[in-house]
Amino acid sequence: MTAAQADLQIDRPRVADGAALWRIARDSKVLDLNSSYSYLLWCRDFAATSAVARAESGEAIGFVTGYVRPDRPRTLLVWQVAVDEAYRGRGLAACLLDGLVARTVAEQALTTVETTITPGNTASERLFTSFAERHGARLEREVLFDSVLFPDGPHDPEVLYRIGPLPDSR
Prior knowledge:
alpha+beta
């Protein structure tokens, strides 16, 4: 953890954080932006499998959202990771991901992390590749949804990154 990260608090999101998460996602210009309503629901219904980073003021400045897959209850699917532009380049996304996974492994006995990444999103590719390396876990990649499955026109395929088994779950 860097000195810049030591000043930050990482915890579960609250409903009041929904607007900030929506803004951070919107301003990322990389993430698919969900409705503001969905971020409010996410903060209410999936707080146990999500995390926010807060500045000293308490303002949310980064987040990772996820959920436990219903058909694979030992797998955390990471939905979105984003950091406010003013706080990027400090390793905050990695800190958020590490913190969330450590918490959910301890609370829910998870063994695997999954995420999907659009080809060319090098920041996400690096984040999850380095996560696997840091934790000594295997990383597998496969196309989850081919571009022809998307009904709203041309879309890049979504590549599934599966990381596991997680070291604390063995």
